[in-house]
Structure formats: C-alpha cells, structure tokens
C-alpha cells in the first residue's frame, strides 16, 4: 500500500516548497488517516484552547496544514467516496436516499468509479484498509474498491494500529498504501478520562446526545448550556484519546524507518454539532461545524511546517497523493481536481431516516442542501427554497444570512454553482446499496444512525 497519506479532515494538497527529499518517488508509501467526526476547531493546531491534540499539533509543526479545509459532505459515506475518487457527491453518487427504510437509505459507490486504491493497486502497491466505521464504510457501500485487505471491525484505535503496523512490517518489495478510519470521536464517544485535560472527569452519561436531540431538533429552542458543556467535555476527551493513538502510530512508522519514504495525510470526514443552528451530531446540514475539518499533509523528509490558506476539499486528496508520485503517470483525466484549481462545495442529500421521518422535526430535513464556497463568501442552496449566504470572514458562526440583502452576490454564486455542475456533468444514478443485513442494522443502531 502506497505509503499512506495520513488523512485528517477530508481534503489534501501537495506541500509545495516543503523541505522534502524523497529518495525514489515511485517507491513512496502512502498513509491516509481519517479521524471520523473530528472538527478542525477542536484541535490545538487549528487554534483550540484545550490540549486535546498534542501529537497532532507536533505533527503539524513538521507538515503542511490547510487552514481552510472542507469535507465534501457532512457524513461518512459520501465524504470517503470523495476522498477515494476525487469527485463530489453529485458525481460519484454515493450518498443518502429519501427512504423510510434504514436498510435501504443509501446509494453505494458504483464499481465504475475509479478509486485511489485501484490506481495504486494496478501499479504494484500493496493496499490495505483498517476501518472502525462498520456502519457506512462496510463493503456494501462500495468504498473497498482497490484494497487487497479491507477489514471493517468496530475496534479501538490501539487495535487498529496493531493491525496496521503488522501490515506495514510484513516483508515485501513493493510500496504500500495504508488507510485507517478511527471512531473514537464518533458516538459513542471514547470518554476514558484524560488526566489534566478537564477540571473534572467527563460525564459518563450515554444519553446526552439523545437529550440534545430533544432540546434542539424541534427548532424552537437553543441547547441548555450545561448539556452542551457536558457533551463537549465528552467529545474533547474522545479526541484526546484518539490523539494519543495517532501519535503512537506515527511513532511506530518512524521506528519502522518510514519517516522519509512515506506520504502521510491526516483528515476527517466531517465534524459534529453541539446545538449550533439548533442541530445535533451530523448528517443533517452543511454549516461550518460539520464541514470544517483538518487536513494535514507531511511529505517524505519534510521537517518544516507550513500553513496554507488555499481552500481545500476532500476531493483533492487523490491528486494530492498522486502528485507526490510523478513516475506513476499523469492524472488529469481520472483525477482532474487539485487544490486551488476548482470550486469547492459540499452536499447533503436529506438526512438519516430516523431524522427525515421523525414526526416532530422530520420536515426540517426533507431537502437537499449544497454549500458553495468562493472565499470568504459561502452560498447554501436548498431544494426547499430556504437559501442562505454568509461572509465567513466576519460571520464565522453563520448567523447573518445575507441572501436577501445581497441579491447580486447571491445570483453570482448561484450561477457559478450551476456552471460548475454543468461543466462536470452528471453521472448515471448510483445503485442502491445492498440491503443491510440484521447485523449491519445492529451496527448502525450502535453508532446512532438507527433509532432515537
């Protein structure tokens, strides 16, 4: 597997100008780390005040950090499909369906979509994925294309790391591509106390998220401050526990001699709502709390950190990786999108059935939402006509909707979005994923996707 690009937040770009000295570019490994549900603004390297991420912060000091990195969707399947194919949801088709049946509520990634793993596999890489999200990264979702090893088990990060390093240490002559998906920061959060992180141990109450649902999803009241505080304490603790294991993996890669021959990309697939916009968790809307994700990339041999303001997306990851591997070929046809050469957008196709068909708040989520960025402007186009426009440079929390007040800007962005879609063209409809088996539904329930 190509030296895994550690993928933290969902979009990556080549670290131009970074101090790197790859010995043989065609032999570089790729390590891609997906930190499921990790918001960029809860990491120290993105300005957070709590010490949730000392290992990621240290990594960022020797890597390239993309300060404006956005996921292509606010939930797992479509964003990972973008990470692997370099295409947006409207192109690859792997997204939610307007279905009442949780077992049939998504479209799988079509087999004809070319993935990064397939490209590397065809060029002699050993490819392996160790995935903790058994709900929306299972084989029925189609994202396993190109991986020789594709293990999906809801395991803690320490066990995923052990499996990954066993793969890395296996004697072989070819390079490798390693992908890991961690779930510590996804419901149910890993709330094992972290000494020194909080003034008091985090709540161990498993019902905080359901309580937040009841408080805010009807759309009539804000979340109680004490409830938000307790939830954020749980979440930050989970990130800190994850950060420790990410640090252990990075140290193990270095100890195995892969610091200078491996591209590491760290990103996330989406963030999390804690009552902002009267929302909870994710997979419901396209505000910044679920779209702004980390993207940190270390080129082989890089020692000096950089911060880049160019807007980046999950779809940029394949070209980011392949541009480090020039001897493998030219990629404008399969992966034309690269950081800085295209518009950036994010899409939400309805919501999970448990929310879409809820008797109280279901109508809020019976719509398709698209966020379109032309920094600092952000347009939200909504199928129900509730469009929004924000200036993120002065309104980071998206509370001042300027759509009606600035019709010229709204029209310009709406037209730009329509042009981009037309230029890219629409693919054939993606196939409905195979129905979830009973054991799959149990996993979805455990992860909060089914039930209350």
Architecture blueprint of SSEs:
Layout: E1 29-35, H1 54-60, E2 64-66, E3 69-70, H2 76-85, H3 89-92, H4 116-122, E4 126-131, E5 149-152, H5 157-169, E6 176-182, H6 208-216, H7 225-255, E7 262-267, E8 273-274, E9 280-281, H8 288-291, E10 295-298, E11 306-308, E12 312-313, H9 317-322, E13 344-349, H10 353-356, E14 368-374, E15 377-382, E16 388-391, H11 407-424, H12 438-446
Parallel strand pairs: 1-6, 1-7, 2-11, 3-12, 4-5, 4-6
Antiparallel strand pairs: 2-10, 7-10, 8-9, 13-14, 14-15, 15-16
Give me a quick take on this structure.
The protein is of the alpha/beta class.
What is the number of helices? Answer: 12
CATH topology: Alkaline Phosphatase, subunit A
The termini sit apart by 39 Å
How many domains would you count in the coordinates? 1
Low-confidence blocks of residues: 1-25
Helix content: 25-40%
The second-level CATH architecture is 3-Layer(aba) Sandwich
State the CATH superfamily name.
Answer: Alkaline Phosphatase, subunit A
Output mean pLDDT.
92
Question: Strand-and-helix sequence, N→C?
Answer: EHEEHHHEEHEHHEEEHEEEHEHEEEHH
Approximate strand percentage: 15-25%
Structural class: alpha/beta
Strand order of the largest sheet: 5-4-6-1-7-10-2-11
Number of strands: 16
- Computed CA radius of gyration, to the nearest angstrom: 20 Å
CATH class: Alpha Beta
Shape: globular
Largest sheet: 8 strands, mixed
Describe this structure in words.
This protein is α/β, with parallel strands linked by helices and 452 residues long. The protein has a single domain (25-446), classed as Alkaline Phosphatase, subunit A. The protein has twelve helices and 16 strands. It has an eight-stranded mixed sheet, sandwiched between helices. Strands 13-14-15-16 form a four-stranded antiparallel sheet, covered by helices on one side. Mean pLDDT is 92; it is low at 1-25.
